[in-house]
Amino acid sequence: MSLDPSTYLLLLFGFFLVATLxxxxxxxxxxxxxxxxxLLLLHENPAANSDQIASIKGLALICNLVVVGGxxxxxxxxxxxxxxxxxxxxxxxxxxxxxxxTLRLDYxxxxxxxxxxxxxxxxxxxxxxxxxxxxxxxxSYLQRGGLGGGIGFLSGLVGIGGGIFLAPILHLMRWESAxxxxxxxxxxxxxxxxxxxxxxxxxxxxxSPQPQDWGLVLAVLLxxxxxxxxxxxxxxxxxxxxxxxxxVLLVGIRILYQSxx
Length: 261
What we know:
With 261 residues, this protein is mainly α. Helices cover 78% and strands 0% of the residues. It is built from 10 helices and no strands. It has helices at 5-24, 30-44, 50-77, 83-102, 107-125, 141-158, 163-172, 178-202, 211-234, 237-260. Helix 1 runs antiparallel to helix 2 (30-44). The protein is globular, with a radius of gyration of 17 Å. The chain crosses the membrane at residues 12-42, 54-73, 85-102, 109-127, 147-169, 181-202, 214-232, 239-257. Keywords: Cell membrane, Membrane, Transmembrane, Transmembrane helix. It comes from Aureicoccus marinus. Pfam families: TauE.
């Protein structure tokens, strides 16, 4: 998309804000980057083609990688990235995220699916979770693999990392501590985003970011660092999560409404 300066500045601020909010909650923000780009694409070009859809998916995935990369390093240094616990999620999710990204979706199908998934993703963010080591539940290798694989496929298909779906499910199941779930979600987002990017590139749907895209990547880099280093110390995580959920829910409803009318 070629954007006029005022629209581009608004998009830069939007990406910066999303990265700040999501990184403070342990996510990459892919769903909201796609939401912003999707709304813009619907407004600018109601007859968008599959190449334009692949372009916004690729940009959202790159932004995901930038935001969660730093978080994953922090979690690794803290000893929270446990390979025995996390490996099944990744082993099954990576090939399915790659496969999902290679599939071309019709314009209408993509935005209906995106709007629906945004609404679904917003609901668990509104709920308060309690997770601790004493109440941890054991999941078998196949259960972890099945959950990771299903979310991985959806992630590649739409262009998100999937952590926004995985983390609430694991919290509801009281699988592990909140810190370990956050660490898994961050790593899961990063590895699935990379697999989906390779799938998009390998299927010749997407080549490389456009010049304007690099400004957006820089915006999420700065926002992600701010979220990790400052926001969680100044604002309660519950307030951040619920504010994010309301924004995602409203945008999801808007996209779904525009797609169906």
